[in-house]
């Protein structure tokens, strides 16, 4: 009975808590926030909200957006989610130039470093690839269909990133593992060479990010439901260091936080000098900052940046050209939530670099572009409305990570039935 209920919920697209997301342009040109089906973009250079347009012939997002990402050069942006759409945007004009349809809901999206391909992962754990790069005449390829290149079969992929040199694509899943796959010269033929598995998390892996020594080796950092942040040699799959946030939370927690023992890592973000890791923790009002010494291969506690008691970030972002850390709190698909309640709260941390000891979250009056930016990204400046909505988000956050990501316990018979009934090979352009 339980299996049937779960399957029916998946097929019908029944609501699951969907956290708000934030992404920053790599060169600081713009910032994007997604909550529910809404994609909100603010032009930091022009100081104004962006009006999105669609030249792809597709529709706007109809359900919760689960993944957003800028390409490495910032020219392209992708959004994808529960409506089974992957939309590719040109950030110069913020026109949607391509809409790709998946047979399954989409959980992660990433661009190859050269901007030629976009990859997305569906809820069955299959990674698909589409050509989106421009030809010699500046035209975007629109005739290629999605090709499956590899998969974490029957396990939701929670995060997907390309290595700084573009040689590897790392994928994390809810079954505690991270797979590092060689990204081939002709990926349309598939990516079958596994470089390594990074194994060590004891709960779902919620987020991954690459970091590197300037001009030297790169490393992988991950966070998970086991309350740990881990540093990896991803080439060999070796665990280099582990920081357990519970080691500090006991002495740092305020009374309202000690009531909640769930300290899952919600997101991580690296400073542009790779010396810091910002960590969003499911029950922490604010952020934990870890020092990242890539020479010594060590993660260590630095400080906690506190925010107001109702604020627990659901997503983090920074750009390689600025020292601002963007954070957002919000969610959709909550019980009795109306479209008018798709509000978020944005907080910005300045000086996200080595001298971060002096940093605190900016007050609203100190935010770049002030009320124009906050209204565009948050949906409202009404403090009472925000307080009401974010209180509901705070309640939902206490159970969201496990409800959304912990593996469903299908019987062996039911698993085989699901495999036989798979239709994710039938893709639409």
Keywords:
429 residues; mainly beta; 5-stranded mixed beta sheet; 4-stranded antiparallel beta sheet; 6 helices; 39% strand; disordered N terminus
Category from helices, strands and their pairing: mainly beta
Amount of helix: 10-25%
Q: What is the total tally of β strands?
A: 29
Overall 3D geometry?
globular
Residue fraction in strands: 35-45%
Strand order of the largest sheet: 6-10-9-8-7
Low-confidence stretches: 1-15, 135-139, 422-429
Mean pLDDT: 84
Rg calc: 20 Å
Task: Walk me through the structure.
This protein is mainly beta and 429 residues long. Helix content is 15%, strand content 39%. Strands 6-10-9-8-7 form a five-stranded mixed beta sheet, with no helix packed on it. Strand 19 (205-212) and strand 20 (218-224) form a beta hairpin. The protein is globular, with a radius of gyration of 20 Å.
């Amino acid at each position: 009975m339980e299996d049937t209920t779960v399957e029916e919920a998946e097929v019908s697209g029944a609501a699951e808590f969907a956290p708000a997301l934030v992404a920053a342009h790599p060169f600081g040109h713009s910032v994007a926030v997604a909550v529910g089906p809404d994609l909100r973009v603010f032009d930091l250079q022009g100081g104004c909200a962006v009006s999105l347009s669609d030249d792809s012939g597709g529709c706007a997002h109809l359900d919760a957006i689960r993944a957003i990402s800028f390409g490495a050069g910032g020219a392209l942006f992708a959004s994808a989610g529960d409506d089974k759409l992957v939309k590719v945007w040109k950030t110069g004009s913020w026109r949607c130039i391509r809409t790709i349809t998946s047979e399954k809901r989409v959980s992660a999206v990433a661009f190859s470093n050269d901007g030629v391909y976009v990859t997305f992962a569906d809820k069955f754990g299959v990674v698909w690839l589409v050509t989106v790069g421009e030809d010699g005449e500046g035209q975007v390829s629109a005739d290629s269909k999605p090709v499956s290149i590899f998969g974490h079969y029957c396990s939701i992929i929670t995060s997907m990133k390309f290595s700084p040199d573009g040689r590897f694509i790392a994928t994390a899943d809810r079954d505690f593992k991270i797979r590092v796959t060689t990204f081939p010269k002709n990926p349309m033929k598939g990516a079958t060479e596994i470089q390594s598995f990074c194994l060590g998390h004891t709960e779902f892996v919620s987020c991954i990010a690459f970091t590197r020594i300037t001009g030297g080796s790169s490393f992988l950092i991950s966070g998970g439901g086991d309350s740990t942040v881990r540093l990896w040699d991803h080439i060999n799959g070796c665990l280099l260091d582990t920081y357990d946030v519970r080691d500090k939370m006991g002495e740092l927690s305020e009374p309202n936080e000690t009531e909640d023992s769930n300290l899952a890592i919600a997101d991580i973000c690296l400073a542009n000098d790779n010396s810091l890791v910002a960590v969003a923790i499911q029950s922490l009002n604010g952020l934990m900052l870890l020092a990242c010494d890539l020479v010594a291969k060590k993660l260590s506690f630095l400080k906690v940046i506190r925010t107001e008691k109702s604020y627990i970030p659901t997503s983090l972002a920074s750009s390689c050209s600025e020292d601002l850390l963007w954070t957002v709190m919000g969610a959709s698909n909550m019980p009795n939530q109306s479209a008018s309640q798709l509000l978020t709260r944005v907080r910005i941390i300045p000086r996200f670099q080595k001298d971060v000891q002096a940093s605190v979250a900016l007050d609203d009056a100190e935010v770049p572009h002030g009320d124009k930016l906050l209204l565009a990204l948050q949906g409202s400046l009404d403090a009472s409305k925000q307080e009401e909505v974010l209180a509901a988000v705070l309640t939902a956050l206490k159970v969201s990570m496990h409800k959304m990501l912990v593996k469903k316990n299908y019987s062996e018979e039911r698993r085989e039935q699901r495999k036989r009934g798979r239709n994710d090979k039938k893709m639409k352009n």
